[in-house]
Amino acid sequence: MREKITSLYIITSILAILVAASLFYQFSGEKITGLTVSEDDIVYFYKFEDNLEDETETSKPQKFGGEFIDGKIGRALRFRGGEYVRTFERYFDKHDDLSLSLWLMPEGTTLRHQMIIWQGDEGSGGYEATDEAILSLNPDGDVLTFRMMGFPNDLMVNSAVSKDVWSSVVVTVRNLDTSSPTANLYLNGVLVSSNTTDNGVPRNQTATMNIAKPGANRMYFKGSIDELIFYNKAITEEEISGIFQEGVKCSSDIDCGGNSTETYCIGNESCTNHTTVICVNPGLPSSFCSNQSEIICEDCPHGCENGSCLEFNGTALGGGFNLNPSKDDDPDILNRGQAGFFKKVWCWLINPSDKSGYQSCLSD
Fold it and tell me: Are residues 222 and 262 in the same domain?
């Protein structure tokens, strides 16, 4: 009997461990949901939500300057020149097929090329034989280049890129274990450059990876980075499109909600505010919802109530006061509200046709 209890205890313990492990895996997965790419395909993932945490909990990067700002999705990390992140990791030499994706906003012109992602020997200054992989901008900040150093045959793709706006950047590399690897560069979900080299690309097993600068040189990046992800495969065009669409705020006016109309009084004016909500730059990373309002006001000679002009609907009486003034009465007649009544009260001294006799029924 004791052996049965012991066996049951062991089985129960194993089941509890399996359930706990399953729950932990599910919890860990929740940290990086919303992606079109499986979390199993992600090597490093930096969201820059006011911290440098790697969502995969693999790397422990260190920040040297930079500031967290409002980004394309949540928060982002902005580099102002002379600032960078050291990952203490290797990436480009560890995978035969790979990809990286990020939201990028270049800011300005520098004296040298700007290194966005760099992997090489710590003493290397960029574009040297000991460098391995580079994602960079030209000094003007408007041409983006990805290069895996081969000397003399680099694997390189490049394209023009806009400054001061967010762009979705994806690089995929295939067949690094062959003599003919291929690299593709996508901007905003569209393939813009492709290249295949004939002699392969050597691997540097001692390289380390930085963000926003090379090893020894001062080729600092100036701009902002958001949602930086490194993958262990060449992601598909469908996955690339999903990454791009995640950063698009709206594709049509419907995504921004509906139109609205509001009426209200401003003094003796009845005003109508027609608000039209539209999608500006639909389907692009620069898209946003904009409220465009048109306010039309109408003068109310006899006062405004609940957003509408009051109208005369009665006949003036001789002497005293009238709760139902007529629309034929003079609009200059002074009207006053009287407690307990829902209509306006007008008063006069003798005759409603004698303007000199008008006066207020109630004192102010």
Answer: no
